[in-house]
Amino acid sequence: MDDRRDSLLLDDQLCFALYAASRAVTGLYRPLLDELGLTYPQYLVLLVLWENGDCPVKDLGAALHLDYGTLSPLLKRLEATGLIRRERRPEDERSVRIALTEQGLALREKARDVPPVIGEAMGLPPEEFDALRAALRKLTSSVTAYLG
């Protein structure tokens, strides 16, 4: 039986296929996001805020699978560019909410051009795109559960 999961060949590694695909897709985003003045992680933060509105840093980190130490510098840079503001809650000084500024809200319209370009470049029919996204979500959930 040929079980490629036990192989030490680079091309048999799922982790390498994921890594290479991630680098390719992130590279695809780079010139589009450069036009918006954003990095890929900053774009992800804005996607969450555009979808959900103001939210606590904790919820933002959970949505993006990022810890506070990684998220905090990202938020500071977005605040420095005038796209978001951090607000301490009066009833709990430890809790910080992230809110979009007018500039951050306005950027959403310019960003609407990004997903169609990415989708076209991926070259996947809608059903394959949906199946791949579902498989990756399942993989993420399984590995996260395994790690505890």
UniProtKB/TrEMBL annotation:
Gene Ontology CC entries for this record: cytoplasm
Signal peptide residue numbers: none
Domain of life from the UniProt record: Bacteria
UniProt keyword terms in alphabetical order: Cytoplasm, DNA-binding, Transcription, Transcription regulation
Gene Ontology biological-process annotations: response to stress
A UniProt-annotated Pfam family: Staph_reg_Sar_Rot
Key word Iron present: no
GO molecular function annotation: DNA binding; DNA-binding transcription factor activity
Localization per record: Cytoplasm
Location of the HTH marR-type domain: 11-141
Name this protein carries in UniProt: HTH marR-type domain-containing protein
Organism expressing this protein natively: Kutzneria albida DSM 43870
Taxonomic lineage from the root: Bacteria, Bacillati, Actinomycetota, Actinomycetes, Pseudonocardiales
